[in-house]
Amino acid sequence: MEKDKKWNISVVIPSYKVKKHIIDVIQSIGSEVSYIYVVDDCCPDGTGDFVLQHNTDPRVSVIKHTENQGVGGAVLTGYQAAIRDKSDVIVKIDGDGQMDPALIKEFIEPIISGQADYTKGNRFFNLDSLKDMPKMRIFGNAVLSFMTKISSGYWSLFDPTNGYTAIRADVAALLPVGKISRRYFFESDMLFRLNTLRAAVIDIPMDAKYGDEVSNLHIKQIIFYFIRKNFINSLKRIFYNYYLRDMSIASFELPVGILLIMIGLIVGIPNWIESLETDTYASAGTVMLSGLPLIVGTQFLLSFIAYDINSEPKRSIRPKSYSSLTP
Questions:
Q1: Is 230 found in the same domain as 213?
Q2: Is residue 321 part of a domain?
Q3: Which of 12, 40, 233, 322 fits a disulfide with 151 by CB distance 3.0 to 4.6 angstroms?
Q4: Do 230 and 182 lie in a common domain?
Q5: What's the rounded Cα separation, in Å, for the pair 46 and 214?
């Protein structure tokens, strides 16, 4: 991709109960941006009408949802509008003032230079900036990050719920809009969908910023939902990448490893229980019959994980050579 061409940069701002901050956010967006889409996701405060009444920036378009579709639904609506207007890169920021628009240039630079198809923020890169982040949120994000690494295949990324993102418009056009989660799981599901396209994704360091905004995301309420959704996406990704699209040595390591571990447990658990009840030691042969499959199976499983980590997409894709086939 040529850096010296004229790039049309769009910003999508999903808006729900951000009336207090939205105008300040719009005014902070730099001249490198050509289009700004404020998507009113059926906001009870009438954010869209408020922008229409008070905004003076000619780059702004307001799109209104008649029904609330969640942050993902609002972002995808903005993506579709930006694609129709021939945008090259689409940036998504929130309207609550947590995301500094001055960072837009840092988010789009890897895309313009051809290093990435999608960039996302990472609030955990600079540990000093985490002193103001609630401890429960730090713990929750660590758990969610680990689950998302497995389900998405992007092992080098962190902070999966961070909504400060940028994407090449021609890559966004390949996304299966009807299948992507619309609400809190949107960011994690996006990573899963991007991996099925083999898109290159890069984390952009940013500071954690908290003001008087009210977060609608509560870890205790969504943790089990995230576990279920990540588990399903993990199975889909493994099947798609290792059995449907391609096959490799890892395609054999995973089932063999799981089978050997199960054999070891099935053989070993009854003998362990019997040894505890009778207070006798199992014979060396019995121990080996259980221990050897467990050891070998664990090695196979670790080999699969190592292969998967090394298979993380690192090169920007050429969208025209890809179909939009996704699981």
A1: yes
A2: no
A3: 233
A4: yes
A5: 17
Domain boundary among 216, 242, 268: 242
- Residues with Cβ within 8 Å of residue 157, at least 6 apart in sequence: 120, 122, 145, 148, 149, 191, 201, 203
Total structural domains in the chain? 2
Instruction: Say whether 96 sits in a helix, a strand or coil.
Output: coil
Which residues, at least 6 apart from 36, have a Cβ–Cβ distance to it below 8 Å?
Answer: 10, 11, 13, 26, 29, 57, 59, 60, 61
Q: Which carries the bigger pLDDT value, residue 209 or residue 192?
A: 192
Q: What is the pTM of this model?
A: 0.86
Quick: pLDDT tens for 269-292: 888 888 877 877 777 777 888 899
Is residue 263 assigned to a domain?
yes
Q: Are residues 85 and 19 in the same domain?
A: yes
Spatial CA neighbour of 240 closest among 177, 308, 307, 327? 327
283 is in which domain, residue-wise? 247-308
Residue with tokens 């391609």: 246
pLDDT band, very low/low/confident/very high, at 323 (cuts 50, 70, 90): very low
Least confident among 121-130, 218-227, 317-326: 317-326
User: Which region holds residue 17: left if phi is over 0, alpha if psi is between -120 and 50, else beta?
Assistant: left
pLDDT tens sequence across 19-30:
999 999 999 999
- Say whether both 148 and 277 belong to one domain: no
Residue 150, helix vs strand vs coil: helix
**Residues 49 and 170 reside in one and the same domain:** yes
Q: Which of 242, 258, 277 is the last residue of a domain?
A: 242
| Side-chain-facing half-sphere of 69: CA atoms under 13 Å | 22
